Amino acid sequence: MGVLYPQNNAARMTVDLGGIWDFRLQGDSGWQPIAVPASYNDQSPDPRFRNFAGVSEYRRRFTIPSAWKGLRWFLRFDAVAHSAVILLNGREIAAHRGGFLPFEVELNGLMEAGETAELTVRADNRISHDTLPIGTEGDTAFFGSDNPGIPSVEAGKKWQQERGINRPAFDFFNYTGIQRPVRLAATPKAYIRDVTLIPSVSGEVRYEVETSDAEGEVLVEALDADGNAAARASGRKGVLTIPQPKLWEPRPGTPYLYTARISFGEDRYEQPFGIREVRVEGTRFLINGRPFRFHGPCKHEDSPFHGRGMDPCLNVTDVNLYRWLNANCFRTSHYPYAEEMYQLCDREGIVIVDETPAVGMWADERYGWNLADYHGQVLRDMIGRDKNHPCVVMWSLGNEPDTEKYPEKAYDYWRPLYEAAHRLDPQNRPVTVVGCQNRYDVDQVIRSMDVVLINRYYGWYNLSGDLEAARYAFRMELDWWEKQQKPLILSEYGADTVAGLHGAVAEMFTEEFQVAYYEAMSECLDERDFVIGEMPWNFADFSTCQGPMRVGGNRKGLFTRDRRPKMAAHYFRRRWGEMEARE
Ligand code: GCB
After folding, report:
1. How far is the CA of 171 from the centre of ligand 1 (A)?
2. What is the distance in A from the centroid of ligand 1 to the CA of 150?
3. To bridge 335 with a disulfide, which of 272, 357, 436, 470 should be the other Cys (CB 3.0-4.6 Å)?
């Protein structure tokens, strides 16, 4: 079951609770102002805001409008990282685990129309072997600078552990708090709970509507982009037949969107959808029957001040920069993004590989075996939320798990998730999990996916700086993959680059090296027909935890963190422009 995106229409209303809330870190007595939605971490020079591990408290008052008498009211949290407890007038009314997907809290029975109440949100940012993403609970730093066996270093690590240091097993800053919108919303008492649309290029759109009550008629109307009725049907389950359908194509100017307008009693819901089909055939990835080649950098939700906070201006800017780059896709590395970004990509024709927050599952042998149920639940919720977006063309079960140490055990972990994704997705999109640079000849998981996605750092973390050797080694690996007869995407590859650092000789960290590195990798990719995509790491520089390998964050961006292009951005703009001109 999905959690429908809140809407304002003739039947539904929302009140945005964004703005300045009261905030405190647990243990503090005084309250201070904090902006919502946004990560709290960069909103104060107090070092604890960056380093705090534990529960933080947000507080504000809100009123149910008197005019909402007789309606159903609820709070809708788009995401609170990494888990949340919700209190109304000091009394706990709900709890939610996981920081990247929405949840709702019903208020009827707890408040009256016209009543004002105090809302408290307790957000817990601690990460561990029981959370997604994973924290290492102090035993390994992300880029291990802790030499094992040295007594004083071991003692230092124990000292940290005892103090509950939050150590991510992933390479992005552990931004947290109320990072996406919070809304008060109202629907009629009998309401539309969920909508599922399964379009086909013939124009037949199968649909299913879930309602709160078994009684009452459901009407569905498909509207074209001008708002004219293109098809009608009735019943909770049925087919809309759209004559001469216009397809959603992943190209600028052509991502045609229809809207399914659903009526049930007093309630209305308008669900945008695109008519497109996705299929893997041999070593090709087909969108509407035509081979699609993925080219676009992976992203993060990351920017100055906001951290991982939802920022519509940033989203529009980023999508326009994707257009400028002649890019046609991104992967939501390494967690599901804010829904507004998918809406934008539906509209702009940018393709998304949608990823769960299962990242860091390489930390040690304890990794994730006990997480399977929760991981399955997150996968179900992500698919439930994103199933209708035409821009989503593939599911990623996670990023860079260790699949080589215990290859059979890893297969037994990932196989049921792979099958669940196929079962849960009404559109049955291809499924993958992103592979780490590892013993690809030993791993059993990556090769078993519909599309092989591999992250490779030949010439950077491996064979550092030697692009001749990098080419040689990468070609050897590609020879191996060619025999697997699956479509392959290079889903990460990159070089840290300090914007403005130049060298007549292209050495690591210079802008010249970043370009030379990408040229070398492009050369290898262009030789292979089974390679159906390239996703450089990363679109923009981004914040990470501190470490000896990170100078003010990860610098592998094609753009700086404030979105200024490095030379490599110009390189890809040319390369992908030529590629698109050929298609
Ligand atoms: C990876 C990870 C990504 C890192 C990147 C890097 O393999 O998937 O999260 O940021 O490498 O730059 O090290």
Report:
1. 6
2. 28
3. 357
Instruction: Give the homologous superfamily in CATH for domain 190-276.
Output: Immunoglobulins (2.60.40.10)
* Pocket lining: 492 vs ligand 1, CB cutoff 6 Å: yes
Check for a shared fold between 190-276 and 279-582. Answer: no
The reply to whether ligand 1 has any atom less than 6 angstroms from the CB of 300 is no
The topology (CATH level 3) of 279-582 is: TIM Barrel (3.20.20)
Strand partners, 453: 434, 489
Task: List per-residue pLDDT tens for the chain, 583 residues long.
Answer: 568 999 999 999 999 999 999 999 999 999 999 999 999 999 999 999 998 999 999 999 999 999 999 999 999 999 999 999 999 999 999 999 999 999 999 999 999 999 999 999 999 999 988 899 998 765 545 555 677 788 998 888 888 778 777 788 899 999 999 999 999 999 999 999 999 999 999 999 999 999 999 999 999 999 999 999 999 999 999 999 999 999 999 986 689 999 999 999 999 999 999 999 999 999 999 999 999 999 999 999 999 999 999 999 999 999 999 999 999 999 999 999 999 999 999 999 999 999 999 998 864 555 556 899 999 999 999 999 999 999 999 999 999 999 998 899 899 999 999 999 999 999 999 999 999 999 999 999 999 999 999 999 999 999 999 999 999 999 999 999 999 999 999 999 999 999 999 999 999 999 999 999 999 999 999 999 999 999 999 999 999 988 888 999 999 999 999 999 999 999 999 999 999 998 8
Among 492, 493, 539, the mutation site with the greatest number of ligand 1 atoms within 8 A of its Cβ is: 492
How many angstroms does the Cα of residue 77 sit away from the middle of ligand 1?
29
pTM of the model: 0.97
Active site residues: 400, 492
Nearest CA to ligand 1 atom 4: 171
* 92 C-beta neighbours (distance < 10 Å), count: 11
Could you tell me the distance, in angstroms and rounded to a whole number, from the CA of residue 566 to the centre of ligand 1?
19
Write the residue with the smallest CA distance to atom 3 of ligand 1: 171
Residue ranges covered by each domain of the chain: 13-134+169-185, 190-276, 279-582
**CATH topology (fold) of 13-134+169-185:** Jelly Rolls (2.60.120)
What CA–CA distances, in Å, run from 50 to 166, 384, 546?
A: 11, 33, 11
Q: Which residues contact 402 (CB under 8 A, 6 or more apart)?
A: 361, 362, 363, 367, 410, 436, 438
Q: Whose CA is nearest to atom 5 of ligand 1?
A: 171
87, 105 contact by CB (below 8 A): no
